[in-house]
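Box 3.1 A note on notation
Throughout this textbook, protein chains are presented in two layers. The first layer is the amino acid sequence; the second is a token string describing backbone geometry. Keep the layers aligned when reading.
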Amino acid sequence: MPSFDIVSEIDMHEVTNAVDQTKRDLGNRWDFKNVDADVELDEKGITISAPQEFQLEQLMDMLRMAFAKRNIDSRALEEDGDSKAGKLVKQHLKLRQGIETDMAKKVVKMIKDAKLKVQTSIQGDKVRVNGKKRDDLQTAIALLRETELEIPLQFNNFRD
């Protein structure tokens, strides 16, 4: 019976490359000369810091552009809150990986509401879709691609 998995994963190596590219761009821009701005990657996410709010927004745009160049969906970044520490404004961004239970239930409900001849099951941080025909599975993939969800979805482990 054909099946595939719906997952939400990001390549951490590419994230590291995107952060490094943003740091290089930061050093090359004239409007950030002699400015104490930084981008840091840790196991919890990415922290960006700048002296002023508008510079923080520019830094965020630079990071999103680096993500786009590396084919990483910027919806994988979740703003975790900003704080002012002394002279710097800091923004912490969490990296979303895996499909949370609420989002998985929403995906399953969308597929069931479309009345497709497939079965869905939530398996940890992914959703498995089974069907008798490959065309039904491809219809389910097309349905999910045209909807705008808060997280990026990938489709892997396609089996006939």
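The first strand starts at residue 3 and ends at 7. The mean pLDDT is 90.
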